[in-house]
């Protein structure tokens, strides 16, 4: 996983957590939902990159 991709995934996850927490604190269900979605998107991005890294290692690149 390249450092740039990893940072992008982590930033997306952090943004999502912050938005979700803010939504919970203010009672804004839409913001909370958007935060969960952003966090999930970051999780998926990270998982895809880890999968790519695993395949590269198995192929010997």
Description of the molecule:
This protein is mainly alpha-helical and 61 residues long. Helix content is 90%, strand content 0%. Helix 1 (3-26) runs antiparallel to helix 2 (29-59). It is elongated and about 50 Å long.
Rg estimate, integer Å: 15 Å
Beta-strand percent range: under 5%
Structural class: mainly alpha
Order of helices and strands: HH
Question: Quick one: biggest sheet?
Answer: none
Question: How many DSSP helices?
Answer: 2
Coarse shape: elongated
> What is the helix fraction of residues, given as a range?
over 70%
Tally of strands: 0
* Stretches with pLDDT under 50, minimum 5 residues: none
- What integer is the average pLDDT? 91
**Spatial separation of the terminal alpha carbons:** 13 Å
Oligomer: single chain
Brief digest:
The protein has about 60 residues and is mainly α. It has helices spanning about 5-25, 30-60.
């Amino acid at each position: 996983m390249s450092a740039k991709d990893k940072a992008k995934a982590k930033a997306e996850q952090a943004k999502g957590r912050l938005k979700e927490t803010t939504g919970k604190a203010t009672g804004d269900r839409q913001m909370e939902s958007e935060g969960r979605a952003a966090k999930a998107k970051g999780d998926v991005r990270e998982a895809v990159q880890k999968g790519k890294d695993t395949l590269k290692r198995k192929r010997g690149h």
